[in-house]
Amino acid sequence: MGARCSRLSGCWWESQFKPTDLESSDLENGSKSNQETIPGFCEYTFEQLRVATSGFSVDNIVSEHGEKAPNVVYKGKLSNDRFIAVKRFHKAAWPDSRQFLEEAKTVGHLRNERLANLIGCCCEGDERLLVAEFMPNETLAKHLFHWEAQPMKWAMRLRVALYLAEALDYCSGKGRALYHDLNAYRVLFDQDGNPRLSCFGLMKNSRDGKSYSTNLAFTPPEYMRTGYSVPYSLTILFALTGRVTAESVVYSFGTLLLDLLSGKHIPPSHALDLIRGKNFLMLMDSCLEGHFSNDDGTELVRLASRCLQYEARERPNPKSLVTALIALQKDTEVPSYELMGISQGTASAAESLTLTPFGEACTRMDLTAIHEILEKVGYKDDEGIANELSFQMWTNQMQETLNSKKHGDTAFRAKEFSTAIECYTVFIDGGTMVSPTVFARRCLSYLMNDMPQEALGDAMQAQVISPDWSTAFYLQAAALFSLGMDTDAQETLKDGTTLEAKKNSKS
């Protein structure tokens, strides 16, 4: 472990990647700021994503289906403090690594503000992972079906429909018309409250690229046409293996329009019966009563019924959907976050937190004060490691390794930081014992020697060993301040302060 950590700590991770070149046309609909903040597509190592997700911690699972889903989505945080969504596939999903990589790169070339864009992937051994922009404001399913404060407003529902149609139209124009398992869980809301379509649905769901929708009530009718009289169980099997087509994607979009109209997940057959009987008002969400005109409701119902046509060829294409939905928009000047009731422009959590002495020392870049704090705390945060080391002292190898640590401690205490680096490196490279405090002390020694990138790597390794150790975050902040990355440093400082506050509240 020591050698691998040493290699990682010697660089600023993302600066080593060579992003895939993107055509300027692939940044359509995006503002200049959006274009500048979306990174190019790159390949990550499994170790990077493991660290980013705190070892794929259960606490970081954000997919609505939780741990039982075959492909779980985790929230993660890269070394430059960029938040990401990491989808980890079941190892049997993509046996052909070359096919997975090619598919990911193709999707990764897309760039549009209507998408939660794919920014990278990982393909090591049996591991297959996708990395996308993280959307912090939940899913459409959450806001439509499980809202707490207020139901989604009519104008926002119309905006969601339009933005999704624009996303599908963009993808179709780029040769990616097939979207797998389009539903309310695939629609995410960004920091501004704008809806985005998850890029994960643009990837095939399995080795053969077939859909795995399991609810027959929402399955496009063409999936059920076997041409034979077959038992119900075989019909289910056929539905589970029906291939996605551009027309079936539009059908699924129609089911989303029903979701937006009703605030519930209504089977299309039931909805169509109501529409044919001219009882479409029974479809409408009762929370919307008095907030929309009958003409607007009628138009959206008509559009949904067109998408749900039994014959696939009679369904509209995404471009015509966009045209129809533009004409229905309301309150276009009101930002999405206002319509969604999402607060914006408030003071950051970092500003509302009271910094500890350690946090204040990092803000001032007072390395002498940081040294005094680390020296005073000693090794008490190395939970259980000290006892393990004393138990193993009987072997010569262990004794030599411990001696290098002791010499490092002596040099660290005497502020001979170059010597401390050398001694701690011997201890770390020994690879038989792990100590987050040693990484922390070598981190500060690197900072004292004006080596901030190396210091950042050590602080991150301390976090890998002890994911909830506030000291690791504080030292990352100090290294980031040294690198001139003040915004990232402030965010990491906030994380460290929050962790320390939680620890103190428990003690």
Describe this structure in words.
The chain has 507 residues and is α/β, with parallel strands linked by helices. It has 3 domains: 92 residues, Phosphorylase Kinase, domain 1, CATH 3.30.200.20; 191 residues, Transferase(Phosphotransferase), domain 1 (Orthogonal Bundle), CATH 1.10.510; 135 residues, Serine Threonine Protein Phosphatase 5, Tetratricopeptide repeat (Alpha Horseshoe), CATH 1.25.40.10. The protein contains 22 helices and 8 strands. The chain has a 5-stranded mixed β-sheet, sandwiched between helices. The protein has a 3-stranded mixed β-sheet with strand order 4-8-7, with helices on one face. Strand 2 and strand 3 form a beta hairpin. Helix 18 packs antiparallel against helix 19, helix 19 runs antiparallel to helix 20 and helix 21 runs antiparallel to helix 22. The two termini are 32 Å apart. The relative contact order is 0.09. The N terminus is likely disordered.
Helix/strand layout:
Elements: H1 2-9, H2 32-37, E1 42-43, H3 46-52, E2 72-77, E3 83-88, H4 97-108, E4 115-116, E5 118-124, E6 127-133, H5 140-145, H6 154-173, E7 187-189, E8 195-198, H7 232-240, H8 246-262, H9 268-276, H10 294-307, H11 318-326, H12 336-340, H13 349-352, H14 357-364, H15 367-377, H16 385-391, H17 396-413, H18 417-430, H19 436-448, H20 452-465, H21 470-482, H22 486-506
Parallel strand pairs: 1-5, 4-8
Antiparallel strand pairs: 2-3, 3-6, 5-6, 7-8
Helix pairs in contact: 1-20, 6-8, 6-11, 8-10, 14-21, 15-19, 17-18, 18-19, 19-20, 19-21, 20-21, 21-22
Question: What would you say about this model in short?
Answer:
Its main location: membrane. The chain has 507 residues and is of the alpha/beta class. The protein has helices spanning 2-9, 32-37, 46-52, 97-108, 140-145, 154-173, 232-240, 246-262, 268-276, 294-307, 318-326, 336-340, 349-352, 357-364, 367-377, 385-391, 396-413, 417-430, 436-448, 452-465, 470-482, 486-506, and strands at 42-43, 72-77, 83-88, 115-116, 118-124, 127-133, 187-189, 195-198.
